[in-house]
Amino acid sequence: MGGDLRRVVVASRNRGKVAELRRLLRPARWRLLELDQAPGGAELHWVEDGSSYLGNAAIKARAACAATELPSLGDDSGIEVGALGGWPGLLTARWLGEDATPAELLEGLASRVAQLPTEQRRGSFVCALVLAVPVPDQEPRLIMAEGRLEGVLLSRPRGERGFGYDPIFVPGGEQRTMAEMSQARKDEISHRGRAARRLLGKVRRSHLGGPGAA
């Protein structure tokens, strides 16, 4: 089975995430399209009711693939606080409600972390990527990968780079938050970077055709 991966739709309206994926997936030579720029993408909405990060990423990838008839990449990521039972986890982007801004989410989680003893502030960043490739008269072919990064959470943000919860996350073995690092260093160690490299490895081994498969 072949697959033309010259154009791939990113099933996300988070511009920071799209920009990061463009950097991470540059070796594949795919042209990543923002969802709203793809044919049929601007009207597309979905319900993230999966029971896992990979499940939610697959929901997004399948929906974008069906709407645009192009290969589509779904991303679902989250932050987990061990002392809070892995919360917010799958609710990372929605635990304050659908209308909460990134700044409100960051401030809200930092406030929760501040209530924890220092030794209980360990956490994880998790990213799941799912590539849905159209197959004539069949369900799309799904290629999945996941990455995880362990670290410590801060009660006060530090740094101006990155997005989301980057300003309160210090990876294990580092002194800087993700928002204080250079893009190159963040891409090297991040959960999304790890997931992207695993995904590209699986694509290379999947015998998908077209530019970007090599």
What is the strand and helix layout of this fold?
Blueprint: E1 7-10, H1 15-24, E2 31-34, H2 53-68, E3 72-81, E4 87-88, H3 102-114, E5 122-133, E6 141-153, E7 169-171, H4 183-189, H5 191-205
Parallel strand pairs: 1-2, 1-3
Antiparallel strand pairs: 3-4, 3-5, 5-6, 6-7
Helix pairs in contact: 4-5
Salient structural properties:
214 residues, alpha/beta, Maf protein, 29% helix, globular, disordered C terminus
CATH architecture: Alpha-Beta Complex
Distance between the termini: 15 Å
CATH topology descriptor: Maf protein
Which percent band covers the strand fraction?
15-25%
- Which blocks of ≥5 consecutive residues have pLDDT under 50? 209-214
Structural class by secondary-structure content = alpha/beta
Tally the helices: what do you get? 5
Number of domains: 1
Largest sheet: 7 strands, mixed
Helix content: 25-40%
Average of the residue pLDDT scores = 93
Top CATH class: Alpha Beta
Instruction: Spell the H/E element sequence.
Output: EHEHEEHEEEHH
Q: Which outline best applies? A: globular
Q: What's the count of strands?
A: 7
Assembly type: single chain
Our Rg estimate from Cα atoms comes to 17 Å
What does this structure look like?
This protein is of the alpha/beta class. The protein has a single domain (7-205), classed as Maf protein (Alpha-Beta Complex). Helix content is 29%, strand content 22%. The protein is built from five helices and seven strands; from the N terminus they run βαβαββαβββαα. Strands 1, 2, 3, 4, 5, 6 and 7 form a seven-stranded mixed sheet that branches. Helix 4 (183-189) packs across helix 5.
